[in-house]
Every structure is written in C-alpha cells, then in structure tokens.
Amino acid sequence: MKRSRPRQRQRPEERYDVDGSIIKSKVPYKKLDNPEMKATALKEAQDYIKTAKPAPSESQQSSEQLPWSDTADDIFFSKEKRGLATFFLRRGSPRYDEFKGFYRKYSGLRQWKIRSENETMSATSTGHALKDESETIRNAVILFHDYYRKQQAAQKAKIEKDRGSLPITKYEKAIVHTLRKHRVLLIAGDTGCGKSTQVPQMLLKAGFDHIACTQPRRIACSSLAKRVSYETMNEYGSEIAYQVRFEGTSTAKTRALFLTEVR
C-alpha cells in the first residue's frame, strides 16, 4: 500500500505581522523545528503572563462573541488568509473552540478592552491595540500548544497502559501475520477482551483497507467508532467511521467502518 509522505513544515513565502501587515520572506525554505527556539518562546510567554495586569472576569464577557477582534482572527486562524496559527489551530475546528475557552481564562490575567471600544478609537490607536492583542494571542497559542502536547502525551500513556492490559493485545502479531496469508480467521474471546476495539486498530496500523466491523445495534456502531478514534488519538480522522440506516460518517477515505448491515 502506498502512503503519502508527511508534509514538511516550512517557512512560508509571506506572512502577517502582528499589526496585520504582510511581510515577504526572503529567507529560503527550511524546517522550522528548533527545540531552542521553542524553549525560548515558551519562556517568553510564561514571563509575559507573570507581568500581566488583571482584567474583567470571564462572566463579564459574552460567550457568543469572539474573545479577540475579527482582524486578529483572520491574522491567526483563517485558512484562506494563511493565518499564523493554522498549522495547529484552524478556525471552526474543535481545537479552535477549546482554545477560545483557554484564551478567555488566559486573557483574564492581563488588561484588555472589548471590541466595541476598539471600534471607536483612532486608526493609530487601533493599530497599537491590534499589536497588543496579537502579542497576547501569540503567547496564548504558545502556552496552549505546550499544554495540549503534554495533555496528549499523558492521554497516550494511559491508552497504551490500558491497551497492554487487554488479553487480545499479545496476539497482535499473530493476527496480522495470519490475515496476510489466509482470507478467513476466527477470533474467539470473552466480552471486554478487545475484539471490537483493538482488532480494527491492529489492521489499520498494519496497512489494511476496507475493514468492516458489524454490530447488532446502532448505538454500538457510533460508540465504537468514537472509541477507536479516541484510542488512536484521531490519527486517522475520517478513515474511521460508522454507518447505520439513514445515518453515517463514512467518506471516500474511510478504511474502517462500523456498521449494522453489510451493504
């Protein structure tokens, strides 16, 4: 099975400055992963939050309103405008919604003004306000990325520990090896041994396609699809789906499908 190579992270040809202006990059493409720069940026963000001033409580802010301006939203989170943070936070994604809650708590540790007040300010003052707001968002993104990475690492460690305790785990190599040589394989095990959740993951990891896992009830299909997506840290995205009568999440990219009836 041919797999596409992971896209390398490179320096963009142009990017937004914190005040909204476009900067043309004259530096040749190169990888951006730099542990020293990451450590420096994280320390700067932590120092920034320590020196910040108090602000209105979260209850004073509208839950329907963006915690930042529309301009800042375009600069950082718009895919169409190649926002600065779209590699990690893209407008409309679940992670983006989670970050909004994180930012509301973070912004409570510094002084800020609501968007309606900014609209009445002069053009010069608004530019300074946008620059200050952009600096706040930048530091919040750095801290959220570090928090999210640590959270994912802890979650992965727990999943691996739970997976290792399931009886079927030790038979992974035997299952994959047998299926590569034979079309039929019968697996018998007690309830809860990991047949429905672990075998599809084993096959996905081994590169198998067109995996169907039939279930007697509708609710079991959706629940198992969500569980397998969770245990794989959503690594496969839409490649894991479910399909019941009149409802489903399968796409052309689906590789593992939980369904109630064979179509």
UniProtKB/TrEMBL annotation:
Keyword vocabulary terms for this entry: ATP-binding, Helicase, Hydrolase, Nucleotide-binding
GO molecular function: helicase activity; hydrolase activity; RNA binding
Domain of life, per lineage: Eukaryota
Record has Nucleotide-binding as a keyword: yes
Keyword Amino-acid biosynthesis: no
Protein name, entry field: Helicase ATP-binding domain-containing protein
Native organism taxonomy: Eukaryota, Fungi, Fungi incertae sedis, Mucoromycota, Mucoromycotina
